[in-house]
Amino acid sequence: MKIFTAQQIREADAYTIQHLPISSLDLMERAAGACTSWICKHFMPNTSVYIYCGMGNNGGDGLAITRLLRNRGYNAHAYVLHHSEKASADHAANREALLQKYPEALHDLPNTTSIQEPPANVLIVDAILGTGLSRPADGWIAGIIHQLQALYAAHTIIAIDLPSGMQADSSSLNTPVVKAHHTLSFEFYKLAFLFPENAGISGEVHILPIGLHPDYIEQTPTPFHISEESLIRTIYKPRSPFAHKGTYGHALLVAGSEGKMGAAILSAKSCLRAGVGLLSCHVPKCGYTIIQIAVPPAMCIVDEQYDHSSGFQTDPSKYKVIGIGPGIGTAAGTAWALERLLEQYRQPMVLDADALNIIAATPGLIDKVPKGSLLTPHPKEFERLFGKTANNREQLQVLSHNAVEKGLCILLKGRYTAMAFPDGSIYFNTTGNPGMATGGSGDVLTGILTSLLSQGYNSKDAMLMGVYIHGLAGDYAAETLSQEALTPEDIIDYLGKSFLRLRA
Ligand SMILES: NC(=O)C1=CN([C@@H]2O[C@H](COP(=O)(O)OP(=O)(O)OC[C@H]3O[C@@H](n4cnc5c(N)ncnc54)[C@H](O)[C@@H]3O)[C@@H](O)[C@H]2O)[C@@H](O)CC1
Ligand SMILES: [K+]
């Protein structure tokens, strides 16, 4: 699914109005109808609903929702906040329609008033500002937003299109934004919903289709996409009936050190479960027996020199792919070995955890990483690699800039893991849950990504699919076991169910 900017959404609206064709008022009626149906599905007909409306089309939606909810027996009231002199045409038309049918439901609030605390159990709808926000909210309207924020604890708040004050395409950090339990957003995710800094502001986001013209959507380029099942299905390649173990590659995992052999086991097991043909693990001496017993299908190469994965007792070029990082530590010998490896091995590889920390601490080392490699930092590792950023929008820019400039596939872990590619595209993953926020989940991801590269998926496809099935397996595991009880081993156990889903 594409993610468009506020400007592109305005163009999509205009294109739809012109080419469908449909009047802009009817398009607003559709949008309000979609919101009304959602509200009716989730709240009883006798519910009192206070709808705070701005002077633009977001407010127009609010006025239409008031009328449509009244039609369906809800005690709905529209409070119109006069933050500008002039109402938009569709706002004015919907004001008139509400006045004609339900005059008692319309209340005007001049720009000096504060809102009164609604009685208990009143549902609040925020239709003050949408994609037309042209600057951070200030003055009187900022005061209204602060008052609505104070109602969050006692009332359910539903934002229309996006919480008022939130900028669709840029950071709203430290500006007044309504805090909502649910956001009913039209047709597309807005970029801002995916920023960790906005966590808890838009609440649960529900994307409501309103039939914007498919030609505009298809023809209009954007770097931003949601990675969803329909895309992953196009990437997934069922195995050939004539396959043998050589078909799916020989992968090398460099993982583990004393006290951290668990990371090696997790990445090795997930690599096997994700379908690698042959797996060798390069581990320190202390890990030999551990790997041989815990992961019988894997071969094991031991590092004689150090008691952590450092020197290489094997010719790296014989492996289809190398995954390196989980639990290796950052000792000088390990750093030395990684640097040598990056000089010798020129195919895409997977770099995670301490491999990233070593790269961050060694000037110029990132430029030796083979093109097309997959880097999987969490936010702290990201910061060590690429520096601090002022907000999540800037962080995305830095992410994409480095992916393009260095020819790497770089992700940034989070609720919506962002994945940036050398072609300039950025995808956000939607699978996964907070149960996966536990040590070892990342090691499992390294194993999956290494496995997919080994099987011949190209770098971009391997990252998109690997991150998706990692989250999906976590979701299956949480459904059965709860988020709290979920461990990284459970993610590995449910990988099978995730593949079955892609095959279905
Ligand atoms: N155009 C269309 O066909 C559709 C638009 N829809 C709705 O229309 C919204 C966009 O409508 P608009 O473009 O009219 O914009 P908005 O309704 O988001 O806001 C525009 C109004 O807010 C004022 N404003 C902007 N920034 C402000 C600030 N910081 N403080 C105070 N006032 C501020 C503007 O001067 C203008 O009066 C969408 O979010 C969506 O809710 C939907 O009805 C779907 C169809
Ligand atoms: K809104």
UniProtKB/TrEMBL annotation:
CDD domains: YXKO-related. Residues 9-218 form the YjeF N-terminal domain. The keyword Lipid biosynthesis does not apply. Residues 228-502 form the YjeF C-terminal domain. GO terms for molecular function: ADP-dependent NAD(P)H-hydrate dehydratase activity; ATP binding; metal ion binding; NAD(P)HX epimerase activity. One of its GO terms (biological process) is nicotinamide nucleotide metabolic process. K(+) binds at residues 58, 126, 164. AMP binds at residues 413-417, 442. InterPro entries: Carbohydrate_kinase_pred_CS, CARKD, Nnr, Ribokinase-like, YjeF_N_dom, YjeF_N_dom_sf. Binds 1 potassium ion per subunit. In the C-terminal section; belongs to the NnrD/CARKD family. In the N-terminal section; belongs to the NnrE/AIBP family. This is Bifunctional NAD(P)H-hydrate repair enzyme. The gene is nnrE.
